[in-house]
């Protein structure tokens, strides 16, 4: 009988391509013997390897490492290192597994951190609103990527306006009606945003008039009567109902500390039913988990039990006030349990950066 180590390289390559579908498969496959380790390396030699089974936390850049970034894997609590020199010294945010980066020269790109594919976008200073060169780091603050329609939707500039481009465009288009936008999402065939006036609006950037916003709803005082300084919006199908969820982050400044640091205290989740046009409060996600932060918000349901259900995993974001801190973003991260309001860390190490907090 042939030993595993004596199998032909061509056969091992086929086996590796079939069975190394997730990063967590790689160590066990490569650990069989030297020939299997070489086959595993050949399978992903032009990339950073396969995705993890569960979301990963890209950690803040290390000042003396211009070539790579560390990712904290939620699946097994270990650190994975990937080559990402294109992102060094830039701000970036994520959507659908891609990164949108902006450099000091306003050059913006979409980068797939695993396949290493790069898509050039218009310069971030082609928005109608003037952006001072010193403010390059707020030129783009959030992104929603719709690859099928080659659409990139963002929040941009000092006034947090909506903007968009189609891949291949030479400049960004601003939606001038928008202002003070907290978050954006694509849901049920429409683009929705939630702003500082507690209002949900919708637009159709592929329609006849792509720069027009239509008011959908406003949170009534009887549902939530406090000022909203940080919030997210995401869609949710609940049986036959289609809902937009507004997730309000409530926080406090640490008293007596200099510089002041912002810490999340709790979350309030409000649902707007698109059919009945009624608001309600949400206290239970069931087995679903929501991820929010300096990226587009997304759901997942983990049957393995590694990711905690009925929770919100959060990181620093554009409203996190981390500019007040010399050490920057990375202080305000954790897991919020929706059922009892308790909080716990998902990453216990140190990872802080002024421009690229963990996402």
TrEMBL record:
It comes from the Eukaryota. Residues 74-337 form the KIB1-4 beta-propeller domain. PANTHER family: F-BOX PROTEIN SKIP23-LIKE, OS07G0183000 PROTEIN-RELATED. This is KIB1-4 beta-propeller domain-containing protein. It comes from Artemisia annua (Sweet wormwood).
């Amino acid at each position: 009988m042939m030993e595993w180590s004596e199998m032909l390289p061509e056969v091992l390559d086929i086996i590796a391509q079939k069975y190394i579908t997730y990063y967590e498969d790689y160590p066990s496959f490569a650990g069989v013997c030297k020939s299997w380790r070489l086959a595993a390396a050949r399978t992903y030699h032009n990339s950073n390897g396969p995705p993890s089974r569960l979301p990963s936390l890209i950690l803040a850049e290390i000042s003396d490492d211009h070539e790579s970034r560390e990712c904290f894997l939620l699946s097994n609590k270990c650190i994975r290192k990937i080559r990402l020199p294109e992102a060094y010294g830039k701000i970036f945010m994520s959507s659908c597994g891609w990164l949108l980066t902006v450099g000091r020269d306003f050059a913006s790109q979409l980068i797939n951190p695993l396949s290493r594919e790069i898509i050039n976008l218009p310069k971030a200073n082609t928005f109608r609103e003037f952006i001072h060169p010193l403010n390059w780091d707020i030129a783009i603050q959030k992104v929603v990527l719709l690859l099928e329609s080659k659409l990139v939707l963002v929040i941009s500039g000092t006034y947090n306006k909506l903007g968009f481009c189609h891949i291949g465009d030479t400049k960004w288009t601003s939606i001038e009606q928008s202002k003070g936008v907290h978050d954006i999402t694509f849901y049920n065939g429409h683009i929705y945003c939630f702003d500082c006036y507690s209002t949900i609006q919708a637009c159709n950037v592929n329609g006849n008039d792509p720069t027009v916003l239509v008011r959908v709803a406003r949170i009534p005082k009887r549902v939530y009567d406090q000022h909203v300084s940080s919030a997210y919006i995401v869609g949710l199908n609940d049986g036959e109902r289609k809902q937009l969820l507004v997730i309000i982050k409530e926080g406090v400044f640490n008293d007596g500390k200099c510089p002041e640091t912002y810490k999340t205290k709790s979350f309030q989740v409000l649902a707007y039913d698109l059919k009945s046009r009624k608001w309600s409060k949400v206290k239970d996600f069931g087995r679903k988990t929501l991820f929010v932060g300096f990226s587009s918000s997304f759901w997942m349901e983990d049957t393995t039990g590694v990711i905690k259900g009925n929770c919100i995993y959060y990181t620093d974001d554009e409203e996190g006030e981390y500019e007040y801190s010399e050490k920057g973003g990375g202080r305000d991260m954790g897991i919020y349990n929706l059922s009892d309001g308790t909080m716990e860390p998902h990453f216990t190490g140190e990872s802080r950066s002024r421009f690229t907090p963990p996402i």
